[in-house]
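# step 3/5: fold
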Amino acid sequence: MFDRTEGIRQTHSPSAGGANPELMTSNPAWDFQFVIPNYEITREYSFHARAVFRERCSPGGT
């Protein structure tokens, strides 16, 4: 969760985490980019984010 939407770009790669032959699926990778158009070299840029931990569960949700 980010403190803004402007400049934050969510990205998803369906196979970046590699394959999972046991479950016959892939391990998708989620990432983000912090995009600053027309940035100034001497200016400091930042954002705040929070992560949520969830116990691992099966693909079926049980």
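# step 4/5: annotate
DSSP finds no helices and four strands in the chain.
# step 5/5: archive (pending)
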